[in-house]
Amino acid sequence: MNAGGIDAQRISSMLAQLRAAAQKPEGLGNSAIANPVAKPPQASPTTQVSFSDALKSSLDQVNNMQLQAEQMGKDFAMGNDNVSLSDVMISGQKANIAFQATVQVRNKLVTAYQDMMNMQV
């Protein structure tokens, strides 16, 4: 099924990545967003992650990617020799892709919520 440009299997994969990202300690980076093809580590049955914590963690990581891309762009514009144009463009594209994925997850969550509210009890 392809709804809104993304199929259910990819949504499930994104949710698994959100859960995996929420379980990571701070400061280890986000390989799930940096490498969306890689399979996230499976949670142990005794570990419980709240959905709100996973969502907040993922949103913080997307925000950090956008801030980093913006800072790299400013550094390049100011003439910093340590920042190349290709690094700025790649960082900007990574932040853009992460944001687009976040918007797609949000859209699916809103649709799921609306479907649940419209169910007959």
Explain this structure to me?
- It is a single chain.
- With 121 residues, the chain is mostly helical.
- The chain has one domain.
- The chain is built from 4 helices and 2 strands.
- The radius of gyration is 17 Å and the shape is elongated.
- 15% of the residues are buried.
- Mean pLDDT is 80; it is low at 27-32.
Keywords:
cilium, 4 helices, two-stranded antiparallel ribbon, 121 residues, 3% strand, mainly alpha
Count of the separate structural domains: 1
Distance between the termini: 26 Å
The dominant shape is elongated
Total DSSP helices: 4
The total of beta strands comes to: 2
H and E string = EEHHHH
Largest sheet: 2 strands, antiparallel
Q: What is the gyration radius calculated from CA atoms?
A: 17 Å
Mean pLDDT: 80
Helix amount: 55-70%
Organism: Methylophilus glucosoxydans
Protein name: Flagellar hook-basal body complex protein FliE
Region (Disordered): 31-50
Family: Belongs to the FliE family.
